[in-house]
Amino acid sequence: MTLSVTPASAPETATPASDISDPVLRSATPADILSIAFLVRQLAIYEELEDQMTGTPEDLRNHLFGDRPYIEAILAEWEGKVVGMGLFFHSYSTFLMKPGLHLEDLFVMPEYRGRGIGKAILKHLAALAVERGCGRFEWSVLDWNTSAIEFYQSQGATVLDDWRICRVTDGALTQMARTP
């Protein structure tokens, strides 16, 4: 299925841009599901992981706006068009004994990169982490994505060399859950 961007109009709570060429950041609404799903697909294509994309826009709607939301989303608009997103959720640091904010995905459409949109999303989420009393703001980056690594480091992030992500999915997850 091919999704097209059909951005919702910005809610009245959106912060107006100070200049026509500044991004407008706002929280996602249920009307934004197809735009978010489109951006997720574009991210999967960029990361050459489209074959792993098995979710649907309805799954996304349930996880963002269902009875038990698992994620939150901030959208970036440029001249009224949704062109970027940050999908995030809370984590927890047992050593700090504080919540953390985990950025699952940051994506800006390629033709809108270099305009400060990614930086604006990171800055917004950092401020949200401070406001919510978080001890950390973390995310992962693919080791081959040198432009993203350089961008994150230019924003003050430290790329940790001594931690690896462990993942269990699909049949292995079911097997792990059933193992006595």
Name the descriptors.
22% strand; alpha+beta; 180 residues; five-stranded mixed sheet; globular; disordered N terminus; 31% helix; 5 helices
Instruction: Detail the poorly predicted runs.
Output: 1-19
Helix share of residues? Answer: 25-40%
| DSSP, total strands | 5
Share in β-strands: 15-25%
What is the overall shape?
Answer: globular
Which structural class is indicated by helix and strand composition?
Answer: alpha+beta
Average pLDDT confidence is 90
**Number of helices in the DSSP assignment:** 5
Largest sheet: 5 strands, mixed
- Distance, first to last CA: 40 Å
The topology string of helices and strands comes to EHHEEEHEHH
Main sheet: strand order: 1-2-3-4-5
- Computed Rg: 17 Å
Quick summary:
The protein is of the alpha+beta class and 180 residues long. The chain is built from five helices and five strands, in the order βααβββαβαα. The chain starts with 23 loop residues before the first strand and ends with a helix.
Describe this structure in words.
The chain is α+β, with helices and mostly antiparallel strands and 180 residues long. It has 5 helices and 5 strands. The chain has helices at residues 33-46, 57-65, 117-131, 146-154, 170-178; strands at residues 24-27, 72-78, 81-93, 98-108, 136-139. A 5-stranded mixed β-sheet has the order 1-2-3-4-5. The protein is globular, with a radius of gyration of 17 Å. The termini are far apart. Mean pLDDT is 90; it is low at 1-19.
